Every structure is written in structure tokens, then in C-alpha cells.
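Aim 2, interim progress. The first record below pairs a target sequence with its C-alpha cells.
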Amino acid sequence: MRKLFVTIFLLTTLFVSCTNNENPADASGNFQSDATTISAESAGKLILFTIEEGATIEANDTIGIIDTMQLHLKKEQLQASFISIQSQSKSVLSQINVLEEQLKVQQNNLARIKKMYAEGSATKKQLDDIQGQVNITKQQIASVQAQNASVISQYKSLTVQIKQIEDQIDRCTIINPVAGTVLIKYVSQFEFVAPGKPLYQIQNLKELKLKAYVTEPQLSEIKIGQKVWVEVDATKGQKRFSGTISWISANAEFTPKIVQTKDERQNLVYAIKIDVVNDGSLKIGMPASVRFQ
């Protein structure tokens, strides 16, 4: 009786196994790298660089500093020129104020002489003289105002240059933009870097993207935001994860050699991407199967 029970159990297990093998996955693919490469934004020696490969860092963490000595010296030079321009501007404005006060007095005298001339108590020469003084003072004011416009232009130019230097100094502090795990470290402390030089590569491994392929008849079964099952090989059978379809290609492509689709007779397939929350066991490049819910 016991032997009969064992035989039945083995036959049942074999039947279930065969049944499962006859039910292939709806799609398959590999987990892809969605890493971000962080590059230097300024040139100089990397006097501080604290990250290591495999380290997890948060967004807005300061992880490096590029030498800013030359930029600070240039900023001091510009600030000295800025102070000189400010002094010139004050001097020009003072001249304008003096001339404007002088013009007020002359205009009052002109009004009085005009009245006296109308009454016959002032000569034509007196009227012409005071009118000439008013005209000369106006020309002087216009000339000084032109000088002031030139000073203001230099003032604005230096202000912009100082802001540019301050921006370059700020860019010498390397701030990590996204939270994640450091995959590759391209440089080391004390190396010279230039704008655009890659420093490190980082990716959020808490959520990976699985790129899989489906045939055209399967397109009607899926949509953006749909939940699916993602299965990976484990030591004891398969491990299942919940995933969400986040992207469906609008164009067909020939079946990649590394991918086996549900219907191997189809030459054209469509790529899809599935977001999967990683518990730490999923790795970039790992193959996985997809089953539609």
C-alpha cells in the first residue's frame, strides 16, 4: 500500500511538472541598468572625494570638492574693481548734483532777467549772457550723465562677472543629485578633472526596470500601469515579484537573439518595460519571466 502511494505521488508530481513546462511565460527579458552618470562641472584638482563603489548615498549629499583657490583670487580681483567703479559712480553723481543745483540758480536768474528785460530795466546782453550760462550748464550735465552711463555699464558688467565666478565656485562642490547605490567610480581623490569628465555612476537599486518583449497579438492584453507577475530563478523553484508596466514601445523590432517569446514563429516583437520593487535579490542583467495577471 505504501509503495502504491509513493508511486501515485511521483506520477502526480511528474504530471504537474509537465503541465507547468507546457505553460511558458507570457514574456521574458533582463533587468536593465537605468544608471545616471554624474560629471564634473568645473576644472581643478579633486581635493575631496568620499564615495566608494557599492556605497549607498542620499540625494543632496556633498560627496566631493574641487579646488577653488584660483576662482576665489579672481573674485577678489573683480571685487576690487567693483569698489573702484562704485567710487567713480559716486563722484560722477556728486558732479551731477552740483551742476543741477547750479542750473536751478541760473534758471531763477534767467526768469528774473526776462522779467526785467520786459520791463526795460535789463539789457539784451544781460539776457543773452544768463541764457548762455544756462545752456552751458545743461551741456555739462549731459556730458557728465554720459560718463555716468559708462560707469553704470562697467558696474553691471562687473556684477555679472562676480555672479559667474560665484556660480563656478558653487559648482566646485559636488552634490549628489539622486539617491542610490554607486555602481562605478571613475576618478579618485587628488586627480585633476575638467567640465564634463565622468566622476561616478549611480542607480537607485530599490526599483529596477525589466525590459521584456511581447508579440503583436499580446498587445491587446497589456496597457500602461497594468500589474504583472515577474519571476526569477531561485535555488528552490522560482521567486515571484509584483511589477507594473511603465512603457510600451510604439514600434516593432526583430526578435532579439537572447529573448524567447511566447510564440517563437513571430519575427517582430514589441519591447515593454516593467518597474519591479527590489528586495535586494534582483541584480542588473538578471533574466526574468513575465506573466500577465
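The second target in this work package is listed in the same format:
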Amino acid sequence: MPRERVADKRHRAEQVLAALAQGYPDAATELAFRTPFELLVATILSAQATDVSVNAATPALFAAYPDASALAKATAKQIEPFIRTIGLFRNKAKNIVAAAKQIVKLHGGDVPDDYDDLLDLPGVGRKTANVVASNAFGRPAIAVDTHVGRLARRLKFSSHQDPNKVEKDLESLFPQEHWVFLHHSLILHGRRVCHARNPGCDTCTLATLCPSAAASP
């Protein structure tokens, strides 16, 4: 199969974006939050867990510990019962308490809107920092989770497994003002249609734009 020209790939990316906008016009994070702090905690908890499981656990957690100052005074053991239904809950309890302590100590109790400061928080990698930067502070960012990475590879927009490299590949193809919508809509499409094991190519609105769908029997 001949290698796709960059100009052709960018044109296809425009078409994919238009199809996603039609299919998911209101795409947004499905994590429930009211403040940047709640979003930060929910995003840390969502690693290798479903948003549904996180949203079921966080109301009681936030009722008991509504802000960084309150959570910083808790121990991981006190937090564990609130998030026991979420995968890796012990390690996540340690991380969110440590992050709260650092937010109180270094940032006056407010989640920092500086990207490097976000990355410096315990339990925060690029995906979490991008989610918080984009959803809490309106910064252009592409958060690459398993869905975004899988769809980027199936659409042949990236050949990488490394989320950071996938992020760079997508940034090079899509206008910055659409980055936040892009990752939200790709996540929804991955959850609803383009599943990991059985992609629904026969009902997929992106099928005519997707080399993987064209190559499937």
C-alpha cells in the first residue's frame, strides 16, 4: 500500500473531524466534577478504570473531602474505603492525598493552571495534566488514553504505541482550536463504536475515511 502523502492525510483528518463533529457535537468529558480539584482527583482515579466507576465513588469522597485542604489532612487509609470499587485504589489513595498536600504546600490550596506544575503533582502524567488543563482551564490539549491511541492507529494518524508520540502526531494533523473536542469525540467513538476487540466498522460513520475499515474483510 503506497504511503499516504502528508497533505492527503491532513485532508482526511479534516474530514474525520467534520464527521466527529456531526456525530458527537456535544462531546465532553464524562467525568463528573464541579471544580478543578474534583476534576484532578477524578482523572487520577480514572486511570485503568471506567468513568462510571469513578463517578459512582466520587460524590461521597468529595462530600467528606471537598477540597485540597481537607484531603491533605487525611491519610491514604482513610481514603481507601471511598474508592475501594476502583482499580488500583490503594495506590490511587496515596497519590491523591500526596497531590493534595503538594497543592496546599506549593499552590495555596488551588490546583495550578501551569502545565509543568500539574505534571509535578503525584499521580499526574501527561494524560491527566492534559485533561485538567483542557477541561478546567480551557487550554488546548489532546489527552491520549487507550481509546484515543487505538483510534489514532486504526485511522493511520499515528503508528506509535507511546501516548506522548501519538499526542504529537495528532497535534501535527489537527488545528489547535479543535484539540479538546478531538480527544473527547475520539473517546466517545471508541467507547460506542470502535471497540478494542470488535470494531463496529459496519455501522461506523468514519469507515469510508478509515484505512483499517477499508482493509477489513
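The domain at 6-28+142-215 is CATH 1.10.1670.10 (Endonuclease Iii, domain 2). This observation will shape the mutagenesis plan for the next reporting period.
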